[in-house]
Amino acid sequence: xxxxxxxxxxxxxxxxxxxxxxxxxxxxxxxxxxxxxxxxxxxxxxxxxxxxxxxxxxxxxxxxxxxxxxxxxxxxxxxxxxxxxxxxxxxxxxxxxxxxxxxxxxxxxxxxxxxxxxxxxxxxxxxxxxxxxxxxxxxxxxxxxxxxxxxxxxxxxxxxxxxxxxxxxxxxxxxxxxxxxxxxxxxxxxxxxxxxxxxxxxxxxxxxxxxxxxxxxxxxxxxxxxxxxxxxxxxxxxxxxxxxxxxxxxxxxxxxxxxxxxxxxxxxxxxxxxxxxxxxxxxxxxxxxxxxxxxxxxxxxxxxxxxxxxxxxxxxxxxxxxxxxxxxxxx
Length: 331
Fold this sequence. Notes:
It comes from Lunasporangiospora selenospora. Pfam families: Endonuclease_5. By secondary structure, the chain is of the alpha+beta class. It contains 7 helices and 12 strands. The strands form 3 sheets. It has an 8-stranded mixed beta sheet with strand order 5-4-3-6-7-12-11-10, sandwiched between helices.
């Protein structure tokens, strides 16, 4: 494991930073940036060094054979419970298809923006991009063929979520895997009235199409019919949980939805794809270690302060006693 300090234009010191609340003008500028960057997205399979052969006897969203995929990556951020500023950004690399962790890198970061739905990348993409660059510098042979991102790809109000943003900046194919659904209402299309409505629709769809759904429902705009992604219960061993709490899979960059879903299935032992699950588990572990360090530092400072106080008290008492003795001698 490496633990490399990152230059992410944010202090790594504990405490002191206040969130900068974006103005409406700032949000409009971000939206314009997303729209401009979106033009560079590749929403089809564009990875000449690896390929997937799909199963023919069922949905085309299952991989029968893969060639050239050696490593898959996962990224995530975890936060100290007491605030949403101090975070650990993590990049985990797993071998494929064994899904064994072969590399992990973590960085302490201080985020200066709050979470705003639809603008997550402007808060988190910097540290994640820096971790990818560290990997390329220190262990280039472990660069993954695809990165799983805990966030949205094109299943996003402006079609450009964190997974798409990171994929475009790094040039690595990315898959968006979100636990939460973002309603799409704009650009001439509508998808979902609420996250709850989508969950209910998914549950009902699986019940009505038990023999053919295979744990997946395409997410299509009601106006244009455009497919933005898929609600998915990726782990066949946890179908009941998946039906209640699907993950939302979408293309990030340089992949087709068929390939994205097939890889999510191939990398899922539980509800969450293993690359993201490991990034989450290990970033939380680093958070616990950080909190323990902070607690030790706080205790040491408290003890030092108490010792200084006791020392001052002893010095004062000694001075008073000395003065008292002198006065007694005079009498």
